[in-house]
Amino acid sequence: MLVPYSWLKEFVDFDLTSSELGHRLTMAGFELEAEELTATETVLDIGVTPNRPDCLSIRGMAREASAILKLPFKDLSVSVKGEAGQGPSITIEENTLCPRYAARTITGVRNGSSPKWLTDKLEACGVRPVSLIVDITNYVLMEMGQPLHAFDLDRLSGGRIVVKQAGDTKEFFALDGTKTVLEPDMLLIWDDEKPVALAGVMGGANSEVSDNTVNILLESAYFFPASIRKTSRLTGLASESSFRFARGTDIGALDLALDRAATLIVELAGGEVSTITDIYPLPVQTREIEVTFEKINSIIGVNIEQSFVENTLISLGLDTRRKIDTSRSLEDTLIIIPPSFRNDIQTDIDIVEEVARLYGYDNIPSTLPSVHMSPAPEHELYKQIKTMKNSMVMSGFYEAVNFSFMNPNMLDQLLLRKEDHRRSFISIKNPLRQEDSAMRTTLVPTLLQNLSLNLNRGEKMLRFFEVARTYTDTGDKLPVERTELTAILHKDKSAALWEARNVGYYDLKGVLENLLRVINLHGVEFVPSCDKTEPYLHPGKTAIIRVNDENIGTIGVLHPGVAVAFDLKGDITVAEIWDLNKLLEYTAAIPEYRTIPRFPYIERDIALVVSDSVTAADVKREVLTSGSDIIESVSLFDIYKGKPLPADKKSLAFAVRYRSTSDTLKDSDVEEVHGSIISRLQKNLGAELRS
Amino acid sequence: MLSEIEALRETAGDEINKAGSLKDVQDLKVKYLGKKGLLTVKLRSMGAIPPEERRAFGSLINEAKSYLESAITSQENRFRSDELNQSLRIEKIDVTVPGRYIPAGQLHPSTKVLDELITIFTGLGFTVAEGPEVELDFYNFEALNMPKEHPARDMQDTFYVSDDVVLRTHTSSVQVRTMEKTPPPLRVIAPGKVYRCDADVSHIPMFHQLEGFMVDKNIRMSDLKGVLELFIHRVFGSNTSIRLRPSFFPFTEPSAEIDMSCVICGGKGCNVCSQTGWIEILGAGMINPRIYEMAGYAPDKYTGFAFGLGIERVAMLKYGIDDIRLFPENDRRFLAQF
Ligand SMILES: [Zn+2]
Questions:
Q1: Which of A381, A395, A428 sits opposite B161 (nearest CB)?
Q2: Chain-chain contact of A361 with B216 (C-beta, under 8 angstroms)
Q3: Which among A145, B82, B124, B192 has most CB atoms closer than 10 A?
Q4: How far off is chain B from A174, nearest CA to CA, in Å?
Q5: What spacing in Å lies between the alpha carbon of B268 and ligand 1's midpoint?
Q6: CA of A530 to nearest chain B CA: how many angstroms apart?
């Protein structure tokens, strides 16, 4: 809020520079956001938090400043003189939305332009002068925080006011001429036949004050804040008035503001003022709050003088007295009645805050809590994610953190089928851009975009991963949030020779194998994906990652068509682990110990020629399931395709390790098993021994 | 006969000591100690020696043999070591050729800072809790004392999924969720992503927050100040000072904004701190008793504090990053720096 330095000084006679004043206000909860120099003076821009609408005026801010600075507050004195004629007729049909409505009529005014002192003050507060009558209502709004509205009395049918909801009325034309669509529960101000104002938000074009206006009806009312906020939000209409009504005005002082404005109008524009009509059927009950000094001190953590507490509360305008308790000699409880402008003070904790605020947070010491030790269980998922991220980083990957948004079009670019679960996404009703209108159901497209951005900037040999949630709409109120890991590896011709030797698939697969080893996940299989290939991956170069017969992720070369759609070139491999939470079920927290073998092993190589369709895993499985308990492991050490082998054949070479748990093996023990393995491979896989 | 051996030992010893190469030494070994070597032949002729002389002869010849063997070994070692030194002078690799390794990547700076903060707070006995990012309006606002149309809702621009579902605007939404499940006392941190419908040079629509809260008997505002001071000192160094300013959050009372002395200028005043010497770093306060009511705690028995801070903001101050829009961009040249 803009507060002209000199205007504030009319209420409190401080001897401080604007910066010093700003600092004192800041340290009491009213942050000085800027200091602006106008042609005539310094204006402080002060942040007023939503709980303190009473400070959305010069008078209110001054009242607060007087308490902060411990200086007297010089309040306005207002009295309407020479009332003539009866006040207007007012009917409130909607008591809960409008508990109080007051008005006076002023007849025989001359509207025109305002004197310079008035326009200067308005402009310093950022308000544009309009005409004398309107300027005076705005002046009182700035001064006292009470929104007022002047109607042209001659344009009010029946010269009377009715407060009721819109009901069947569908539209309303506001002051600025815009057509507003109404909801049935919006509160309107009516005359005998038509709506003349959108209550608390904006007056109507049909009753507005003009230069020719001679008779006015001046409104000062209290409207229920939530109703005003909702109307303003739904209609998109906002004003200085609606802003204050939505935060809560002072229901007890609206007559004072009405009188202040009426007096100024008579003084500056002439005319005769009527008596007041003030409809206030159920006056707000004051509330008593009890608080002990002990409570104040125990929450703040410091011993504050009782006299300081009492004086502070009184200086803030809170009616404060000691509770007389005849059963006890100590008078350690205060009874406080907050004034009508402090609706934010409801319970004892609010009193504690007032004391702490004016005592000064700077004067509160720093202590550390003394608590009982309590077990602090580790967050397993967080711990595992940390391990996984570190493993990825050590394998050369950079961690990307993307927005959780996606462009729904990207699902088409990924070639996802109609029934794909990733098409069940959550939409944002008010996205910043259409591209960011859906919540991600997959991390793949944003990582592809990261790749593209970096390639366009000349980066090479890129490796990125992201660990983030995806959000799938399952029809419940909230989507299913799943934490996933996606990694992407890019290779191009710029690779150093030893890097280029392998295709990216094997690089990324190695990274994943290492990652899963690091988190103690054993028994992982990479199975050719066949008809389960993700549509955005190459069907012949993709594996499903499987543990205990459960699919936990996938790895494969990016589908060439998808690469084109994302404007990408080169050797791109994508890997996904779909549900890190589920992974926790498989990763044994405590590794299982096995005895270190006591006897030496014997290793034998097998070189085979097999059909191209036979996988390394097929051979491995045949060997391991051949039934002998001395086969310890089998590992691939060479693959060869090309001459002199036929085009549909390849050569695979394995080392088979034999070991017994009870004996040192003899060559003859191994020969027999090795021979049976070879005949098994010949029989079951059509393998030929390579000479 | 004995003198013959003496002479042979002398000659052989001389020749061995004067040998010019390893090969010469090996030849001499054959000449004297080989199967037909001169000394070996003498040994074989033992049978021809009269029995009474045999003992002295045997002893002399064995002594000569071990003398020559040791001379040969020492010469061999000398020549082998010369040879090795010679080859060490010749053999070279280019030690300046780049080493072979997979260069490590980097964690995102948001993750780095978040991990650092989590380590600090778990060290103080706080546990990590999580909640959904697509959240019910109830947990994000209503349970935090912000009913529908509450003016405090203006403080945060909210992404809506429906009337009752929002993208959480703060990780404070985890507070009531956690309290509903866990009886006091508790010490919890809730790290995670939060969303605001706001994008310009200094705002991004998704960023990270760390919410912390502690509920126990006799927790005071001075404890909040102490814990935050400890944490700021750990992250920014113990020369950093903090100040608390009164502020407003519907779910804390009293509420405070916490400023720290500007890490860029040390408090003298610069552009980063708008010449004030202070930088707003987090919001905090004593948990409003209404939150305990919402969570079903006995409001008079327990007190506690809560705080929330923006991770990217901490990262920017810690590393001196001048543009928040770099965080979601994921340019490798940015990521590689932390
Ligand atoms: Zn600075």
A1: A428
A2: no
A3: A145
A4: 23
A5: 6
A6: 32
**In this structure, are residues A104 and A273 in contact, taking their beta carbons and an 8 Å threshold?**
yes
Binary contact (B216, A394; C-beta < 8 A): no
Q: How many residues are recorded in chain A? A: 691
Intrachain domains A2-69 and A289-360 with the same fold: yes
Closest CA of chain A from B85, distance in Å: 34
Give CA–CA dist A225/A227, Å, rounded: 5
Interface probe, candidates B222, B238, B259, B292, chain A, greatest A C-beta count within 10 A? B222
At A225-276, the pLDDT tens digits run 999 999 999 999 999 999 999 999 999 999 999 999 999 999 999 999 999 9
Determine which of B248, B252, B291, B303 to mutate to test the interface with A (most A C-beta atoms within 10 Å). Answer: B248
pLDDT score for B61: 85
Cβ contact, residue pair B303, A403, below 8 Å:
no
To the nearest whole Å, the CA of B144 is away from the closest chain A CA by 14
CATH class of the domain at A2-69: alpha beta
What separation in Å is there between the alpha carbon of B261 and the centre of ligand 1? 8
Report the alpha-carbon distance of residue B134 to residue B124 in Å, rounded: 29
ipTM: 0.89
Q: Give percent of chain B with pLDDT exceeding 70.
A: 100
Residue of B nearest to A23 (CA): B276
Q: Measured between alpha carbons, how far is A66 from A54 in angstroms, rounded to an integer?
A: 14
CA B269 to ligand 1 centroid distance, Å: 4
Reported confidence tier of residue B55, pLDDT bands at 50, 70, 90: confident
Is pLDDT above 80 for A501?
Answer: no
3-state secondary structure of B135: strand
CA B280 – ligand 1 centroid, Å: 11
**Which pTM does this prediction carry?**
0.87
Q: Roughly what angle, to the nearest 10 degrees, separates helices B109-123 and B311-319?
A: 100
CA closest to A511 among chain B residues: B102
- What does DSSP assign to residue A366? P
Phi, psi angles (nearest 5°) of residue B172: -60, -20
Contact assignment for A396 to B111 by CB distance below 8 Å: no
Among residues A515, A300, A384, the alpha carbon closest in space to that of B246 is found at A300
Compute, in angstroms, the gap from residue B202 CA to the centroid of ligand 1.
17
| Of residues A230, A368, A393, nearest to B223 (C-beta) | A368
Q: Do B220 and A301 touch (CB under 8 A)?
A: yes
Q: Which residue has the tokens 């906002």?
A: A238
What is residue A500's predicted lDDT score, i.e. its pLDDT? 52
CATH number assigned to the domain with residue range A289-360, chosen from the 4 options 3.40.50.300, 3.30.56.10, 3.30.70.580, 3.40.50.1820:
3.30.56.10
CA separation for the pair A516, A523 (Å, rounded):
10
- Residue-wise DSSP of A624-655: HTSS-TTEEEEEEEEEE-STTS-TTEEEEEEE
Confidence of residue A496 (pLDDT cuts 50, 70, 90): low
Residue B48 pLDDT grade (very low, low, confident, very high; cuts 50, 70, 90) = confident
At the second CATH level, the architecture of A380-583 is 2-Layer Sandwich (3.30)
* CATH classification for the domain delimited by A89-279, as one of 3.40.50.2300, 3.50.40.10, 3.40.50.1820, 3.40.50.450: 3.50.40.10
Q: Return mean pLDDT, chain A.
A: 93
CA A31 to chain centroid:
23
Per-residue model confidence as pLDDT tens digits over B62-109:
888 899 999 999 999 999 999 999 999 999 888 888 887 888 999 999
Classify domain A602-689 at the CATH superfamily level.
Ferrodoxin-fold anticodon-binding domain (3.30.70.380)
pLDDT at site A494: 59
pLDDT of A330: 67
Separation CA A88–CA A161 (nearest Å): 8
